[in-house]
Amino acid sequence: MKYDMKEIMTRAWKIKKEDSKNIFALCLKMAWAEAKEAGNKKEEKSLKEKLVDKLNFIVSDASGFYTYSIYVSDWEKYGKSRTYFAVYETCQYSKHNAKYDYGFFDNQTGKYVAGRHDLTDNCSLGGRHHLDCSIKF
């Protein structure tokens, strides 16, 4: 991982200016620790991002006969904020049309609430077979 040296030095000088008795070497160590901690937080994916990745994985593993569309929609009303997940399955040769409801992610609490289908399970569309997915929750 690359770090912005200018930003780290600027932060070290800000720490030094907060108290003139601070030793600059220790201020620099503190600035480096803050930068590394921020870098580690950026590398970790949020639960919402993992759920979207899992949805993409499930669709990529599905059969080629049907056409799949991923539906990820943000909704805000009544003091609630949610992101809904679904997959639409259609066929160009017939009137087949199915919707797989995967529930929603509560943006306020950071929790996932499964719908009829669950993204935390390792099952394909409709629960037909077990998937070998590396995305863990």
Overview of this protein structure:
The protein is elongated and about 75 Å long. The longest helix is centred in the N-terminal third of the chain and has 20 residues, at 24-43. Strands 1-2-3-4 form a four-stranded antiparallel β-sheet, covered by helices on one side. The protein has 137 residues and is an alpha+beta fold. Helix 1 (5-18) packs across helix 2 (24-43). The protein has three helices and four strands. The model has no long low-confidence stretch (mean pLDDT 82).
Blueprint (SSEs and pairs):
Layout: H1 5-18, H2 24-43, H3 47-61, E1 67-77, E2 80-90, E3 97-106, E4 111-113
Antiparallel strand pairs: 1-2, 2-3, 3-4
Features of the shown structure:
alpha+beta; 4 strands; 137 residues
